[in-house]
Design brief:
By secondary structure, the chain is α/β, with parallel strands linked by helices. The strands form two sheets. A seven-stranded mixed β-sheet has the order 3-2-1-4-5-11-10, with helices on both faces. Helix 3 links the parallel strand 4 and strand 5. It is globular and about 45 Å long. About 30% of the residues are buried.
Amino acid sequence: RTLNITAGARLLDVPCGNGRHAIELAKRGCRMTGVDLSAEFIDEARGAPVEAEWILGDMCDLPWSNVFDGAYCFGNSFCYLDRQSAATFLAAISRCLKPGGRFAVATGMAAESILPTLLNKRWHRTGDILTLSEARYDVAEARFDIDYTFVRNGEVETRPTASYVFTVAEMRRMHFDAGLDTVELREWGDTGPYRLGSPGLMMVSQKR
């Protein structure tokens, strides 16, 4: 519904991770292409029992032109990019889409979501894995440097990440500059219009 497509549409999932969204859409009749920089994720996606195209590659370096009916970028992935890389990515997405094709970004890292509710430390549990996130906000760069510590069966592993923070207005301008007009701003999960303090943003744009 978000992308305004029907079964048989050709869609781009970027970055696709292990294909958890693309696999389900392929089962529903969409012709899926997934791109991800992780060889481990792409190998896992290729093992799924669906017809789909899985490509190991950079989300900012997409080779297609006017071939996809829709595209999406989920899981906070957009905010892994700094401003220059984000502009490059959006230009690539616009180039890949057919005129009128829609693009959806889902992120919990928009400034209006993350800054009003910022906690420097958070614990959460997923199955038997306990995760601690420790965040430091770089004001000059509008960037979160976050260390994730995973605890499982007495084993502890810490991995650093960085996520850039964009205001919704900034994201809209970047999309417009890439030839993508914003058509909808709403909360994750169809719970209503996006507003200050919403837990996550679903931003939908359309290629001119």
